[in-house]
Write a structure and sequence with these properties.
With 354 residues, the protein is of the alpha/beta class. The protein folds into 2 domains: 149 residues, 3-Layer(aba) Sandwich (Rossmann fold); 136 residues, no CATH class. The termini are far apart.
Length: 354
């Protein structure tokens, strides 16, 4: 028989041996059975995956508040944990989820569209990595988890974007994950990593992680050692004004004087950029001079200032008010540093600032 022809009881492919019909049927049934069995196995794998154990956060009040909100999430509600970069947001989230089951975390890069975010999450839950319909495959696994009494938690870590980057499509992705599949979603967001739409729904619970106090910084062993070294050089006070309550800034490699100088240089550059781009904000920026802790109501900011806020990165929004986005910006505005100001280069000159 020609290799490209077929008889009544078999199918023959060019260059291959004949395969009986009953063998094909058995293989098809086995494939379906394997796919059906893969769903429970994938659900079991996700259920058994526990979040890592971490050192407890030094913010017990915020920790308990976030834990309560997570436990009471229902429907299409979600949580946004936001605040300055390096303030301890991720560690706070990890502390809340410590040893919890059914937790999955994803890093979301700037500009990632909602469709790609969803595809990544669905393929994680899907029993088959190459599933043609990952959402449907993931839905079967999620249904099994719900029947077992588990409501999975998805953490979306939004990476801070550069001025030229578009924000990721988190708002649409979060809506689908919560409303279509009943997932509990936490967005871990650096300043300027998301667009405003994520904060403008009736479904979000926003948790702002502010800077730490000096006492809280002292509770972190590595930071405490860095503070002791700064104190020995007489730089503890100036470091507090430049680094503020951002623990990660105290742990930067290299000379702390260089790190402080870099922070101040960046702050002055940002202030100059805003003054140049939106001249009508000059008087508002001047209000910060000599007044520590000053803030501006958002309705006072010109539309142009709000539109370029992600580019200039001078302000962060906290409880409906614009506040300096970093401790160094707070100090620069307080001292009125702008224009051609030359940032101090020696420890002695830095000490004069405070």
């Amino acid at each position: 028989m020609d290799s490209g022809r077929s008889g009544n009881n078999s199918i023959t492919f060019a260059g291959s041996r004949r395969m009986p019909h009953h063998t094909i049927a058995a293989a098809a049934i086995a494939a379906v059975a394997l796919a059906a069995a893969a769903g429970p196995w994938r659900a079991l794998t996700i259920w058994r995956t526990a979040a890592p154990s971490v050192q407890r956060s030094v913010r017990p009040d915020v920790l308990e508040g976030l834990r309560t909100r997570l436990q009471t999430l229902h429907g299409n509600q979600y949580i946004i944990v936001h605040g300055p970069r390096g303030a301890g947001k991720t560690h706070l989230v990890n502390s809340v989820l410590c040893n919890a089951r059914c937790v999955s975390a994803f890093d979301i890069m700037p500009g990632t569209p909602a469709e790609r975010i969803l595809d990544t999450v669905y393929r994680h839950f899907s029993p088959c990595a190459g599933a043609q319909q990952p959402e449907a495959a993931a839905a079967r696994v999620l249904r099994i988890l719900r029947l077992s009494g588990c409501r999975p938690i998805v953490v979306l870590r939004a990476i801070e974007r550069a001025p030229s980057d578009r924000p990721a499509g988190l708002a649409a992705a979060v809506k689908s994950l919560t409303s279509r599949h009943g997932l509990r979603v936490i967005v871990d967001a650096d300043v300027n990593s998301t667009d405003e739409s994520l904060f403008c729904t009736t479904r979000q619970h926003a948790v702002h992680v502010s800077e730490m106090t000096r006492a809280q910084l002292r509770q972190i062993p590595d930071v405490a050692r860095a503070l002791d070294l700064l104190a020995a050089r007489g730089l503890a006070d100036v470091a507090w004004h430049v680094f503020g309550g951002i623990p990660s800034l105290y742990l930067q490699p290299g000379d702390p004087v260089s790190a402080m100088r870099e922070q101040l240089c960046t702050a002055v550059t940002r202030v100059n950029l805003m003054r140049r781009r939106v001249p009508e904000t000059a008087a508002m920026l001047d209000e910060f001079q000599g007044v520590m802790g000053h803030q501006i109501s958002l309705d006072r900011l010109p539309a142009a200032a709000i539109a370029t806020r992600h580019l200039d990165r001078v302000f962060d929004v906290v409880n409906g008010a614009a506040v300096p986005a970093t401790p160094a910006l707070r100090l620069a505005l307080f001292l009125g540093l702008s224009g051609e100001y030359r940032v101090p280069t020696t420890p002695h000159d830095l000490q004069k600032l405070v």
